[in-house]
């Protein structure tokens, strides 16, 4: 459910390329939002050191995992409510 | 309509971000807890209903566009 | 006053298309910002239920209306200060 | 210059959002009240003046770009 | 890869903004003070390490994509 | 150090154009973020008047200068850590 829409059959090469690009932009934005959000949730902003400590690292791993789940849940909700885009 | 697809993907990403930020605050486990899931589902539904309502109002205003207020 | 710039006469078809696209991107962004802002102003973030209640609904309607007015005011201010883009 | 137009529209949308967020907080009516209007106008003017000033400083720094600090 | 370049520039701009916002709060001089510089360097390094870690986790999840949770 | 990457030799005209556009988008975004950030740091949000006062003006000048320095520092850090993009 991570990718919001598979490429339907019977599209031209140009359309497929354009869709692939849109798909990629979507993934890039997903990644950027995830990275910003998990930084906000997990990292100490006083910057006492340049390293991530153990607590921050495990928080980040869990944060990514939970964000991914939320992404999947919203995808399912949307695909249940209406036909794919 | 490529533009429209891109927009709906943008909206989708904003929705995920918002509901995650508002609903998930504990990172002692790697799976969502029950009440986090409930919160996310309500948040997502509420945001979709909100967006549809705003869309309707927005369309009305755009129709009477040339002069407003 | 909502649209920031009418398409001037004497432009090529390509330019007109490009302008129309820019205009549309502008409207989409206006809509997205409006939707995010009114959600922040009007909706209870505790998410006790999946429905918008009556208070939230009327807040949203007024919020959209006021946002539209602010959009128009800023448009007038800009078009008064300097020649159209 | 298409790019420039797009930018100025983006700036425009950000300006509207900022002044709305900073100046409008009551939703008991559907029209702006007098003091909200005043606030929006000052906010918009201030933001435009700010942007022009930043633009001037930014241009100066870009000219002396290769080495700075 | 043009897209990739654009993304990394976007990331770059976000990094600069974040570290500036988190580390610089006094405007009595026009040059960064020592502790502001230290803060910016740590912030930037931390953000880069964070991004690499998120990238690794994200890649893992994308590989097992079809079914998750 | 302000510009993140000079255009390397031996690229086609199309690529150079595309790079120049990306470079420009980068500068525009830098400018927009700088303007928003310095407005947040320096300007009184109560909007008692439409003019920037002296304190705000000098704060803005210093803010731009410091933002520029941070931009340069991050650029150096990145170009030190790995080969240019």
From TrEMBL, chains A, C, F:
It is found in: Mitochondrion inner membrane. It is a peripheral membrane protein. One of its GO terms (biological process) is protein transport. Keywords: Chaperone, Disulfide bond, Membrane, Metal-binding, Mitochondrion, Mitochondrion inner membrane, Protein transport, Translocation, Transport, Zinc. GO terms for molecular function: metal ion binding. The keyword Nucleus does not apply. GO terms for cellular component: mitochondrial inner membrane. SUPFAM superfamilies: Tim10-like (SSF144122). Heterohexamer. Belongs to the small Tim family. The twin CX3C motif contains 4 conserved Cys residues that form 2 disulfide bonds in the mitochondrial intermembrane space. This is Mitochondrial import inner membrane translocase subunit. The lineage of its organism: Eukaryota, Viridiplantae, Streptophyta, Embryophyta, Tracheophyta.
């Amino acid at each position: 459910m991570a990718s919001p829409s598979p490429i339907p059959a019977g599209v031209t090469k140009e359309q497929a390329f354009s869709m692939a690009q849109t798909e990629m932009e979507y993934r890039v934005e997903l990644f950027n939002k995830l990275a910003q959000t998990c930084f906000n949730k997990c990292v100490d902003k006083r910057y006492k050191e340049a390293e991530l400590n153990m607590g921050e690292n495990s928080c980040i791993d869990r944060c990514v995992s939970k964000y991914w789940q939320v992404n999947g849940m919203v995808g399912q909700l949307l695909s249940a409510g209406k036909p794919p885009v | 309509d490529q533009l429209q697809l891109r927009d709906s993907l943008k909206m989708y990403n904003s929705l995920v971000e918002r509901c995650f930020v508002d609903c998930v605050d504990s990172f002692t486990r790697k799976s969502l807890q029950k009440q986090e899931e409930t919160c996310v589902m309500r948040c997502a539904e509420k945001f979709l209903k909100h967006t549809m309502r705003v869309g309707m109002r927005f369309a009305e205003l755009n129709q009477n566009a040339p002069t407003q207020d």
